[in-house]
Every structure is written in structure tokens, then in C-alpha cells.
Amino acid sequence: MTETTRQNRPVIQVRNLHKVYIMGDERVTALKNINLDIMQGEICCIFGTSGSGKSTLLNQLAGLEKPTAGEVRIGGVPVSRLDENGLAVFRQKHVGFVFQSYNLLPELTAVENVAMPLMFRGLPKDVRELEARKMLCRVGLGNRMNHYPGQMSGGQQQRAGIARAFITRPDVVFADEPTGNLDSKTTKEVMEMIRKFARTFHQTIVLVSHDPEMTQYADRIVTLLDGEIISDVKTENKERQGL
Amino acid sequence: MKFTDVARMCFDNLKRRKGRTILTVLGVFIGCTSIVVMVSIGIGMTESTNQMLEEMGDLSIIEVSRGWNETGEETAALDDTAVESFRALEGVAAVMPKASLNQYSIQMYAGINDRYQCGWGEIVGMDTDAMEAMGYELLDGKVPGSGKNEALAGQWLAYNFYDTLMPEGRNYADRWAYDENGNQIDPPDPFFNVITTPIVLEIDKGDGTEVKIRQELKITGVTKEDYGKGWETSEGIMMPIAAMKDLMTKIDGSPVNAKKLTYSTVLVKCEDISLVTEIEESIKSMGFYTYSMESMRESMEESSRQVQLMLGGLGAISLFVAAIGITNTMIMSISERTREIGIMKALGCYVRDIRLLFLMEAGAIGMMGGIIGCIVSLVISVGINLVSMGVLGGGSITGEMVLQALIGGEGVTRISVVPLSLMGFAVIFSIFVGLVSGYYPANKAVKIPALEAIKHE
User: Fold this and answer.
1) Cβ contact B454–A59 (<8 Å)
2) All domains of chain A in start order, with CATH
């Protein structure tokens, strides 16, 4: 298989996706007829202002919410139709998350936090923590292994979050405003790191942001407005062309 | 997730909210303690009831006497045929026919020149071969063989003799001796040993003549006092029926009366207490009059069971309150951990692991409360027993007393009895209460969506 064919294979397929919220008597349409293919290895930024429906789209893509109509497939698996157990298995194997507020568990050390996805898979403590230490070294937290989240800066916490998202070598990593709480210098560090991981393991990143600066790290920018895709452009990214 | 990982998370969480965990455990422990202490008092009542009944007699023995109707006529004779029919009943372990020599007036002598005398004698003929099966205990010697004029003496028989050579007031060996404080002390030895000293019976035929028959008896053994089997085990003389018939022939000068001999009572021992009612009914239906401890025991057992239930129910109320406490604690903890649960789900944690985690937390609270409750109950139980044993009266507590208060002992009546099974049950029940209390919160927890992880605060 050549790089090109792998590149061209869609990992995420979205077909006729609708999401309607019922709030009291009112029906709020959050997503209208979304059709989208995201290729393997692509860093795709879903861009839009607050209320554009970008977060709702991410939730549907990652299987965090059920769509009102339509279907989401990841690697051919209809995520939108999986039950709780199926979703758990699917998330263990194929999906990683990077959250805006890092979402590290405060009472666990960095190593324990990073090792958590492997714990849910049933790996023994020594095996998964060895793996977590390797990941932490990779994100430059070799000297923060046994620190608790409260003892780390925002940038450090987010790097631990990235280590946790990538530890299972997932096909897709969803990043929800990953730098929303970080300053511009740390934002650059964190985004470079996400991109490096994605490139190294040929992983797909779905990035949700309202920050135009984010677009410079993406291969493709999907812009949402009022629940509809209004533009879908590929960026002229040098690094991307190198692939 | 591995079970050990779930367990580790569970205990980390309980440790993290130490204060709340301790307070919830406190509730369970109070509930558990009140149940255990209450039930232990009920068990103590049952134990003392049974002890009392056992002192009154063997619970598995039915005493049969001859039956009669309203006009006083005998409806069933206690003869060898009757004994055989009892023996044939299912569940009968042993049958002991007893005959008496009460129709004669008897005096007893012992020692050189009849030095020791007793004005009366209770002589019972019995099937000495069945004694062991019936549960008679010998303190000394052995059961008479086929030898003529051999007999057994009751435990206290020798104390009924007085010494004709001693002055009034000192001529008895005092079986009921007390010290100056009014406590019973060990009685002194009797004047003679019944096994080494032959006892002479002097029997008045009671036919108006002054002729008295003297018969020397060789005592081969001494029985332990047991009123359930008859007063003769305490103060009488027991001899084989054949020997008794020989004696009667000798007294009467002919075997006429000996041949007509019927039994005064027959003791029927059942293989198990549970068979007593049924066997007693069968014997009654043959026309005999029966008596056993069973009916009394049944009603006493029933009433102590009711008391146990009532006391246990009182304790159960506080455990119920504790259960609500567990549920409350778990719901609070879950609403605090909503985000955490969302994150765990988003990272691929199975729903079943989350449920297990919360059930385990609730179960662990129950278990800790149960274990502490059992320990505290034991201490309270020992305390109650020590008080009832008279510690408050100024006596000092010895290790032996504590042990007796804990596990009981010869002649110790405990108010509160905590058997191991009660403690085991209490711990398991507390865990169960924890699990039941945790069921609703755990189901609430698993319903928390992974979406919670992504919500911004």
C-alpha cells in the first residue's frame, strides 16, 4: 500500500447527519445534513464561531451523542449505532481524546492518568505504567512522572493529556479546543506536539476550534455556520505536501 | 479493567473522602451493633432456657406410666410386652423399664454392728443393660453383672446414713454445707464408701407379722445424680430386674408376686429431640400416660424466638437508617464525580466496571461497618455478661471471667451470647445492605454520559 492510497482512504464518514435538540417546546436544529469524509492521516480542523454547531459535530463524530438522523462511521464501524459496551470497546481501540480543560483526574499522578486508557483495557499495572512513562518522556514530562495535575502548569497538564490520548495508538484523536486555556507560546508547543504524533503514527486528528490561529496546524479546514458546512478547504501546508 | 484495579480505585475513592466514609461507616456500625447485641440477648435467653430444661431432665426422654380411664381402671399395663412395643417404635434409641419395691417398708444398715443407719430405702429394679444407651453416667465402679444381690447406689446415698455412735448434731455427713458467707462449699466425705462397704436391707413384709428379712447388697458402682432419669440416681439403690425378682421371692417366700411384677414407669429415649413429639403420640395412642419436656420446650422456644425477632427488628431499624445513609453518601459522591465518570467513559471504561466500582464502594462501607460492629458488639456482650456475673458488686475481673463471658462455661448463665455464626451473618448482611443501598446510585452512575467529560465549566 502506498502512502497515497492510505491517505485517500476515508477514516471518518459522515452521511446526512442531523441533530435536533428539543428544549421545552422549542426545537433547535444544531446540525443540518452534514456530509463529510475525513481521510486517514489528515489533520482536520472544524472551525466555527460559538453556536455554529462545531462542538455538536464533534460529539456526534466521537459517539458521545446519538444523532437525530444520519450516520457516522469510523473505520467502517457505525459509531452512531453502537451501544454503551460497544462504544467502550471502540473507544479503547480506535479513539483518543484531548480536552480543553485537560480532564486529568486530580487524585492520580501523571503516570497513572496517562496509563488510564490501558487500565480500562485490563493491562496489568507494571506494563501500562511502563508504557505511560515512555509516553511522558516523549511529551517532555520525564521529570513530572509522579506529579499530580495540581502540581503542573496548564501546558504540562495538556501535554500529559496528549500522552494519554496517544498511548493506545488510536486511529483518530479528537481534540476539543485543546489550547483554549493556554497562552500562545504553549499553544504552539502543544499543537506542534499533536502534529508530530499524528505524522509519526499516521493518525487522524479532528480538531475543533474557534481560533483562526489553529488553522495553520491543519491540513484541512471545515467551517461551520448555523449547523451547516459553509466551506471545506485544504491548506497549502508544506509539511503536508512532504507526505 | 482488572478486578484489582477496580478495588484499588474503590479504596482510593473512599480514602479521598475520608470524613464522609467514616461517618457513613459509623452509621452502619451502629446499626450492625444494635442488631448483633439485640439478637445476642435473644440467643442468651434461648441458651438459658435450654440450660434450665436440661437441668430438669434429658429433653429426648419420654416418661411412660400406665394409663387409666375416668373410673380409675387400668387401660394399658406396663409389662414386658409393652416394653417390647416401645422398643419397636421407629426412632427409639433405648427403653428403660423401672419397677419399685415401694410396697414394702425398708430400712438400711451399713458398717460393723449396723453402725450406720438409714430409716428408709428407695429400691428400683431396672434394665441395667440399657443404662449406657439411656445415658446414665457412673461416677465410680461399674454396672452390676449377673451376680445376685449386686446393685448400684445413687450419688448421694451414703449421706442419708447417720452414725449411731455420734451425738446428735454431728451424726450426719452434711451434704449441704455452707461457709460463714452463705456460699455452698464442697461437702465432706460420707462416713463410708458404698462400694467397699456392703449395705444391708431390712425389709418388713408389711403383712402384720414382725418377721423382717435381712439382705446384704454388694454395691458395684455409683450413678451420677440425674433427676430426668429418676430420683433414685441421687439417693436410691438400683438393681437388675432379675435380682429384684429374686429378692421379692425371698421376701414373700414364694415367686407369686415376682411373677406378677409390672413396671411403675418406663423411660423411652428418642434418637433425636425432633422425634419426641411423634413417638410420644404413638405411645399415648397405645393407652399409656406420657410425660416429656418437649411440649414445654416447644412453647419456650417459640416465645424466645419471638423475643429474638422483636429485638432483632429493633436493631434492624437502625441498620435501615444506615442503609439510607449509604445511598445518600453514594449519590452525593456520584454527583461530585459526574465529570470523572464522563472522562472514564470517554477513555473507554466499561459500564460494568463503573457499576462494579460504585457497588464495591457501597459494599466496602457495609463491610467495614459490619466488622467494626461485630467487634464492638463482642465488647458490649462481654460487658453485659460481666455485669450479670456480678462484677459491679465489687468483684475483680479475671481473665477467666472474661473468657466465660465470651464463650460461656460450666454453670455460667450468659445474658448475651454472640456465636461466631451471628458475627459472620452480621458482616455478610452488612455487606448485603451496602450492596442494596449502592444499587440505585451505581445505576445512576452508569447512566452518566461520556459527554460530561467534554462539557466546559
Assistant:
1) yes
2) 3-241 (3.40.50.300)
